[in-house]
Each structure stands twice: as C-alpha cells, then as structure tokens.
Amino acid sequence: MDNTVVFYTTNMGSIPVRRTIIFLLFLLFSSVSIAKKPVAPPAPMARAVLLFDRKTNTVKEELNIHEVMPIASVSKLMTVYVVLESHADLDEVITVTAQKMYSSRVLGPGVKVTRRELINMALIASDNYAAKLLAISHPAGYEMFIAEMNSTAQQLKMLNTMYIEPSGLLPNTSTAWDQHLLNRALTKYTVFSEAAMSKSAETDTHTKKGPWKRFVIYNTSAFAGQYDIKVGKTGFTNPAGWCISMTIKHKDREFDLIVLGSPSKKVRNTLVAEKLKDYMNSITASSVVFQIEEIETYSSPL
Fold first, then answer.
1. What does the pLDDT look like over 112-124, one tens digit per residue?
2. CA–CA separation, 268 vs 266, rounded Å?
3. In angstroms, rounded to a whole number, what is the distance separating the alpha carbons of residues 235 and 244?
4. Is 130 helix (H, G, I), strand (E, B) or coil?
5. What distance in Å separates the CA atoms of residue 292 and residue 112, rounded to the nearest whole number?
6. pTM over the 0.90 mark
C-alpha cells in the first residue's frame, strides 16, 4: 500500500504531468474568454436605402425605408418645389440680407440676385444662404413658407416628414420612402433635372456698387453628368450623415434611389454606384466605384 501511494503521488506531481494540466487549463480558460468576447458586426453602409422601380411600381431593395431621420441638404428639394408651386416670379431681383448661421462665398449682404439664380445655387452648389433667401423672399413671408413646406409634404402623403427650416442646416426629418414620394412630384419641373445634370453653372449677382459680378458654382454631387438624372441632391450634416436622393432614367428603366445616413461620402457614393451597376448593367458604373470623388461645395469668380 505504501509503495502504491508513493508511486501515485510521485507521478501526479511530476513536472511533465503538471505541465500537461496547466496547458489544458490554459486552453479551457482561453476558449471561455474567446467565446465571451463580443464580435462587432460590420458597419452598415447606410441607415436607410430605397431602390424603387417606377416602371413596375415595386420596391427592389429596402432598408429602414420608414425610419424617421435627418436629411440634411436633401431638404432643398422641397424648398425649391414650394417656390415653383407658388408661381413666384423667378426673375424678380432679391436683395441679400445678413442671416445668422448662414454663409456663402458668392452671396453677401447687399448683393442683388434673381430668384432663379437662388434656385440654381440651392440645387447645384447646395448653398444654404440661397435656400434661406428663397424662403425669406416668399410672397407670404418666411413663417408661411415653412408652413407650406409641411402642408405640401402632407398633400404628397409624406406623413413622416417635418421641416423646420429651408436648407437642412437644422435637423429637418423624413424617411427614404417619403423622399421617393417627393421625387415623383419633382419630375414635372425640368429645373431639377437640369441642376442634377450640371457639373457647374454660372450665376450673376449685382454688387452694392452696381456692376454685375459673375461666379461659377459647382455641383456637390459626384454623379452630375454621369447618368440621366431627373432629380438629384446630396446632403451632409453630423446628425444626418451623408445622404443622396436621386431619380435615374436609362432607356426604358427609371428608378428612385435614396440613401440616408451613410458614414462617409466615399461609402455613400460606392453604395450608389453599386446599385446603378446592379440594376442598370448597360451603364459603365463599375468605373464610378473607383473614380468617384465628390466635388467640394465652393464658388470662384471668373
């Protein structure tokens, strides 16, 4: 008995056995810690995506299309639509007034510009100052203009949309589905397609001293001129992320494509280009994935 006990104790306490036990315990605790460690899911390319086929009247792809979220400068589509629906004189000359929070490289206090030029600046250069002036110069006044933005949204069945100012600088909210409904209404006005297809445009302003000063304004959309775009507007604020609302037509196909809340402009543009490639194969969209670089919002005098 004594020899048996000594033999058993000696073998269990031997260095090779102890090493084996320690190694097995290490593997056990390592596997437990690995199993408990959370694995982060891949970052989404957008908070909301809608691809709507107008020809078949069907949703081709959707992600959170009824979720309410900020829409940034995509708000300017409704701003311009309300101006056009009001039948205000587009050639009326408007004097620029100073506005808190708003700045522009073209517009300054005392400068005179037509309502038509303000529309171009709001759509092409995404000029926040221009959008605010369109609302201020509304025949019924600023507050009534904002009210008309919201009443128009209700008329278009955009039931989850709320506008509090005309540029998107403050958090106007909507859904991808509601923006699709708005795009359907916008296509009756050619100004939206003309702006969406323009990489740049010239605008004239009248300075305090009298002579006209001409500026070049550049489109904030990397897709301007790339496709047959009937409606197109990009937007960005920190709360909204990178957004875009488009209506694209090619041959006998027409789509609404809305992307809201992308984490970066590169991710947003890549996502849009991929959708164009998937559903409009005859377009050489593959090159856009690698070559898109959004034109920065700026204006420079000629």
1. 888 988 998 888 7
2. 5
3. 6
4. helix
5. 35
6. no
